[in-house]
Write the structure tokens for this entry.
Amino acid sequence: MQRKKIALISDAWVPQVNGVVTTFQSIIPILEKKGFQIKILHPEMFSNFSYPWYKEIKISYNTKKITDKFFKDYKPDIVHIITEGPVGFAGRKYCIKNNLKYTSSFHTRFPDYVKQRAYIPKTFTYSLLRRLHDKSVNVLVPSNSMIKELEKYNFKNLKVWKRGVDTKLFNSNKRNRSNKEIQLTYIGRVAIEKNIEAFLKLEGSFKKTVVGDGPELEKYSNKYPRVNFVGLKKGEELAQYYADADVFVFPSKTDTLGNVILESLACGTPIAAFPVTGPKDILIDPKLNTLDENLNKSVEKALKVRREDCRNFALKLTWEDCASEFLESQIDAHSGSLIT
């Protein structure tokens, strides 16, 4: 039997390191094992230039010719548009012109980021993003809180799509601490939209470490010399930083979920965060709910959480389930006609 073909259309792809790339790199092998063929239309296939604030993010242009050839050569059975950038819009345009059904997903609160950096109203930017999703059969969103927020901006056909975590790589057994000092760790992009200064300004008898790269890395490393900035880490080394932390501090107020929260929990490390979209959707277990409007108080709560409770919670969140939910959304969109 011929394998069904999935086309993924994305402005975010390797070598970028973010939740979008992690999610799809995690589910693609699972979907392939289920008998699906997958190809990605991504920025490296086009002429592009770097985003002003993030050199690793590429903005594609002259997208029509390559996009048309991709679709005509591949002839996908399923089309999923991952992002709202030039590649995503090129995929949308082709689908609408050729009467192809497509689904899409919402991963990043770009309107919040743009408002912080360029002072453009969120209503304007959300209206632009909504255009990509307006013909989507299913718009996959990582949390119920994010669905409620998008509904305020008149997004339709929203459907929760839960995430998973690699509990073999991110494992509490990797913890190897010799010192007694309390270790607070932030892992993620070093950028103003992540509200990282809320973490950097925390005062107390603990050691602070920042793992990650970003546009504000040099600025913040100079401004906060007592904080240990170690740069971008991957794989086993990254898992070690999670596991060795006593508390993972997640100061962001603009994330749609926060894959890093799941990775930390898998390593047995509790979370200190604000009660906002993302953390409040994940930390629903009373044993893990340390959320507080005061980040210092959230840290105090997190230090009382049992590490085994964190690990046990994460073990229930698998990439296999995430891939199955993704596939169910496609079967639903195509009236159940995608059985391989």
